Amino acid sequence: MPVMERIQAELDSHPIVLFMKGTPEFPMCGFSSRAMQALTLAGAGKVHTVNVLEEPEIRANLPRFSNWPTFPQLFIHGELIGGCDITLELFESGELERIVSEALVP
Question: How far apart, in whole angstroms, are the C-alpha atoms of residue 79 and residue 65?
Answer without folding.
Answer: 11
